[in-house]
Write a structure and sequence with these properties.
Beta-Lactamase, 15% strand, 5-stranded antiparallel sheet, 25 helices, 6-stranded antiparallel sheet, alpha+beta, Transferase(Phosphotransferase), domain 1
């Protein structure tokens, strides 16, 4: 949004606050007819508006209930996994919901007769429209399932592409090693045009094995092999491999020719055999591994001198893990197949495959074994037919995908178990395999079955159940709130609820003796599980160890008389940096420098205590006025913080990627368990870019595309994204903080802080300028 637009938003916001909340929509309709962006911005600010400040002097005069109400500020946490934010501000929805509940509670008794008449009329209307509803519901269900499965398929394809690209780039760093290239060339010179014995070739490759072992490090399971331009195997992991010096099989030549032309390839071991003539493995692997093939180049040589194959360091396991994460519901499954229609990932239903005879008893794994064909019967309820499985046709999805097609089917078709399913599929030409995602037909359309069976009668019951459920919900909500709210928690007196997150309520309280306003965060009774208690307690312990003025302060924590877990924390009066951007747009470089310095000081203490924040973003940073000091920064939400490397951090470790996509460092995308303070420096760089430019550097339509852009796009200078003048030192600092490789960033937050403190402005950000800004927005 342009600067002039922000000024208009601010003016409209001030005018709207003079009106009752019931007239806000009418006011916006009148003044923002053709400006949807301004309307949304003003609406967001109004939703976060409240009459009183968060640190008003107490006791207060009771507020007029006729005045508008709603929270002034809110800190939201948009993470890939839902986390309860460590905020001290009020949720905009809780007060509105409470009002609705109270209104409904009063109305049910007074208008019970009218509600019954309305319910009866609704049931009659729904019964007459039953046929139309049935058709519409099926169409919407098909549309929903199609969007769900095709989106899941697209996300899986992108996730696999990102993962494999990272794996290939990792292996290619080995192939570019000068020591490796020299040793490969040395062995090749012995083999080229000659017929040395396998023992002689193995002896010549001893130094190459040393180089590979050194690069592999702790990856003891690493396996590798090399072929020269004549497709002859010149080196391998095994010292006494008898096929060293042999040429390639027909299958091997087809693959190696592409690698020796400069391609990189994923090899998924199948029944087609191996690359070198005469090669026989010591034992038939029950679960063959995947391998990566990359070319090895010599300097000034346009063509590769060799093809390198690397496997055995968990590629198949990581591939399987990605596929497993995309499976949902008990009947759903996402799997990959090769060009021959053979599974290359593990089926979720191996026990059933063994029990039904679809998978031989001596094959413990379905990967590289099971052909995705239609047995002709539902094997869940019927025995297999007495026909040769090799004559069974491919399933609809497998037949389409091995021909390189992409599509979906929601009319239903049998899967490899003979069960009716719906699904979507696509072929990844780049890696020469396909992905299929399916769910049982009955699961996909389970909402349709009861409607068709009960038709009109169920509609009436649904109407009655709806009213009964509404009344019960109101009663339960009132009972829950009554049971949850305690007037006294330790030395703190509770005044009112000011917020609600996924796991906890937040209340405004005051210390009984000190009269200090305090925010009390209390776990909801239904979430008092061992895991949530551990996480809540660790959050409090981590945050309470930090004492810097720029970090939210934790006063106390413990259990209430009713056994509920709580913590008492600093109560902040101010706005988030996101709200600042909504009000005033991009900020001048001198103010951005001031804000970044304050954030760095908070992070410096955290990093010094070996803690990383992991969710630095505008919504988690507030600015406020303290003791006549303006633009005081408070860093919030250390709920995602983790210690660098301790038993406690490993005990609560998760493989789920957490954080806000636009601010997650590339190394955390590749490895969600990465705990590196330089990841906070990356997020700080994105924050600086947003404050200077007004938008994030990595655009995307969804979280997955944003993560993909973060991995693949080089950082840009803020000066290239705005016409506002930005000093070169600040411009370069923000750009360097966003380097994709941690080694290319600043190596400590202290280094960033020193650089920021050395930036000089002709008109620096002063307390007078900050005071003027605050007085302007508070008018």
């Amino acid at each position: 949004m342009a600067q002039t637009d922000h000024r208009r938003v601010r003016e409209l916001f001030y005018e709207a606050t003079k009106l009752p909340s019931s007239q806000w929509d009418l006011f916006l309709d009148k003044n923002c007819q053709d400006d949807d962006d301004s309307r949304r911005a003003v609406r967001r600010l109004l939703d976060h508006h409240v009459d009183d400040t968060l640190l008003s002097n107490l006791p207060k005069k009771p507020r007029d209930r006729k005045q508008r109400s709603g929270p002034k500020t809110i800190v939201s946490s948009d993470t890939l996994a839902s986390f309860d934010s460590s905020i001290t501000e009020k949720s905009s929805s809780s007060k509105a919901i409470t009002g609705i509940v109270r209104s409904v509670t009063r109305s049910v008794t007074k208008k019970q007769y009218r509600l019954w008449l309305i319910a009866l009329a609704m049931v009659m209307a729904l019964s007459l429209a039953g046929f139309y509803v049935d058709r519409t519901l099926r169409r919407l269900t098909v549309q929903h399932n199609k969007e769900l499965l095709t989106t899941l398929l697209e996300q899986q394809s992108t996730a696999i592409d990102i993962w494999l690209d990272a794996e290939f780039r990792f292996v290619e760093t080995w192939a570019r090693s000068e020591d490796l290239i020299a040793e490969v060339a040395q062995v090749d010179s012995i083999v080229l045009g000659k017929q040395p014995t396998a023992k002689e070739i193995s002896a010549a490759g001893s130094q190459l094995r040393i180089v590979m072992n050194r690069m592999a490090g702790t990856k003891n399971s690493l396996r590798y092999a090399f072929w020269n331009r004549e497709y002859r195997e010149i080196a391998a992991t095994k010292v006494d491999l008898p096929v060293l010096g042999n040429g390639a099989t027909d299958f091997g030549a087809q693959v190696l020719s592409r690698v020796l032309q400069g391609e990189r390839m994923l090899w998924l071991q199948t029944s087609k055999g191996f690359f070198t003539r005469g090669y026989v493995p010591d034992s038939v692997s029950s679960r063959p591994d995947a391998a990566l093939l990359v070319p090895v180049y010599r300097e000034n040589d346009p063509l590769p001198i060799a093809a390198m194959l690397v496997s055995g360091f968990g590629i198949q396991d990581r591939f399987q893990s990605i596929m497993d994460r995309a499976s949902f519901t008990d009947s759903g499954e996402t799997y990959a197949i090769d060009k021959d229609g053979i599974l290359i990932t593990e089926s979720r239903f191996v026990p059933h495959l063994h029990a039904s005879g679809l998978l031989p008893a001596d094959k413990p794994h379905s990967a590289r074994t099971l052909r995705v064909t239609d047995p002709g019967v539902n094997t869940l309820i019927t025995d297999l037919p007495d026909t040769d499985p090799l004559t069974w046709p491919y399933t609809l999805s497998a037949g389409m995908v091995i021909r390189g097609g992409s599509g979906s089917n929601f009319d239903g078709y049998p899967d490899y178990k003979g069960v009716q399913v719906v699904g979507a599929w696509g072929w990844l030409e780049k890696y020469n395999f396909g992905i299929i995602t399916e769910i049982d037909y009955e699961t996909a359309f389970e909402a349709m079955t009861p409607m068709r069976q009960t038709y009109g009668g169920l509609l009436g019951l649904c109407g009655l159940a709806g009213f009964a459920g509404l009344a019960r919900s109101v009663w339960l909500e009132r009972a829950r709130l009554k049971a949850t709210v305690e007037k006294e928690i330790g030395p703190y007196s509770i005044e009112r609820q000011i917020g609600e997150g996924g796991l906890a309520f937040v209340y405004l309280a005051h210390h009984s003796l000190l009269k200090r306003p305090t925010a009390i965060k209390q776990l909801k009774p239904e979430h008092l599980t061992a895991q949530n208690l551990l996480r809540f307690e660790r959050e409090v312990q981590l945050a309470s160890s930090l004492k810097h003025p720029n970090t939210i302060e934790i006063y106390d924590y413990g259990r209430t008389p009713k056994g509920n877990f709580y913590c008492a924390m600093e109560y902040v009066d101010g706005i988030t940096l996101q709200t600042m951007l909504d009000i005033d747009g991009p900020q001048p470089p001198e103010r951005v420098t001031w804000l970044l310095i304050e954030v760095c000081r908070s992070l410096r203490e955290a990093h010094g205590a070996e803690l990383t924040h992991r969710d630095i973003k505008p919504q988690n940073i507030m600015i406020c006025n303290r003791a006549n000091e303006y633009d005081c920064v408070k860093v919030l939400d250390f709920g995602l913080a983790r210690e660098f490397d301790t038993e406690a951090s490993r005990a609560t470790d998760t493989r789920i990627l957490i954080g806000t996509p636009m601010y997650i460092a590339p190394e955390r995308i590749i490895d969600p368990t990465c705990i590196d303070p330089r990841s906070d420096i990356f997020s700080l760089g994105v924050l600086g870019h947003v404050l200077l430019v007004g938008r994030e550097p990595h655009a995307g339509v969804d979280s997955l595309s944003i993560l993909s852009n973060t991995m693949s796009s080089a950082p840009i200078h803020p000066s290239d994204a705005t016409k506002t003048f930005i000093p070169e030192l600040l411009d370069d600092l923000v750009w360097r903080c966003q380097a994709r490789k941690p080694a290319d960033r600043f190596q400590s937050i202290q280094e960033v802080l020193d650089k920021l403190c050395n930036i000089r402005f002709d008109a620096p950000w002063t307390q007078d300028r900050a005071k003027s800004w605050w007085e302007t927005i508070e008018k």
